[in-house]
Amino acid sequence: MAKFKTTPAHNTISPLKSAILTLSIIGTAVAIFFIEGFSIIFLAAYLLIFICILLCNNKIPTSLSAFFRSLVGALFIFSGFVKGVDPRGFDYKIIDYLEAYNMMWLEPLSLILAMLAIAAELIIGCMMFFNVKQKLVIPLSTLMMAGFTILTLIDATKNMVPDCGCFGEAVKMSNWQTFYKNLTIDLCLLTVWFSYGRLRQLFRPAAEFILIVIFTTLTFVLQIYCLTYLPIIDFRDWKEGKKMTIDNPLPIEYWVDYKHNTTGEITSMKVEDIPYNDSVWLSQWSFVDQRIIDNNIYPHNVMLFDENGGNVTADVISNPESHLIIVSYLLDEMKMKNFEELQDIISYCNEKDITVEFFTASDFDDIYQFADSTAIDAYFYNADDIELKAMIRSNPGVIAMKDGVVLKKWSHNNLPDRIKLEETFK
To answer: pTM to 2 decimals?
Structure first.
């Protein structure tokens, strides 16, 4: 066990000052959730706390530094974990950044970059939390946060990527909130720097090496498992057990604007209130615009269209009977390795009169060609590829639904057999 170095008590700031400093930093973390945009006052508060920490420098108690080290480590672990359970989702976010910064030549490596970034965050977080190799991990975490802080400042000022995905799909923050969050972490790290090398080591060097190997192995096992199958925790809309319809929807209002031909006056009214039978009124007013007011809060953003362009979303999703949805955001990128199993699932559903629906972003010419070549007996609908990728992280993926509720989801790597389907739909 390494020796515990500390600063003499008379050389450290008082408990009261320590408490004020701690509450100030934690206060910024809480305030983030109430300040979504740019705030000069909030930035001034960060600067003031930063100056206070600099003035305290090596008088900060090691116990306080240890607290903030553990806090930063826990935050890194949380951030890495919520992305690690959905590496494909973070891959999509990496692609957004590559596109925003004109670096699409790196797109073939986007998944690898995503997995490495997640692994780095998780490993560094675990090392910080357990104070493993502190003389290595503190500079590494500082370097990482310097990069994140600069990147999120650019995002906040230019809004190049609307959502950085720092906490995956678990926590949504504006770009300014993300920047403020990184400033709070920077403040915590600054307190840790002033106890650099003085914090108590919990493990011997050999044990630290073993822990790093364990941390590294677990981070990649987690990601590979969730890539092969589906996220072990689903933070998106289409999670198992969630109802995707509204029980008592509010009526949708259709409004139109008319302009008086002589005075130029603009009047708004509901469609049902238009005096179609009043020929005099119709001769005096001219149609200008129309709009739809829908005050319902929907549990998802998917919109489904049939081959005629009709919106069939409500009818398909709210189907009270058992039905099976196959999702393939692009047919030409669909994994065909287990396609025979997929066809057997469709055959089972047809035998049991369970409706099979196929959602894809491919156009209907490709759909017709695909349906002919595979002889799949299903209803095909078109939808936005981004929403389909959010529905299920698999191409293809299978979703069992009944009465608007998501019963079960499967990746193309663990498709259900007939027994599992029967248990799901019973």
So the answer is: 0.85
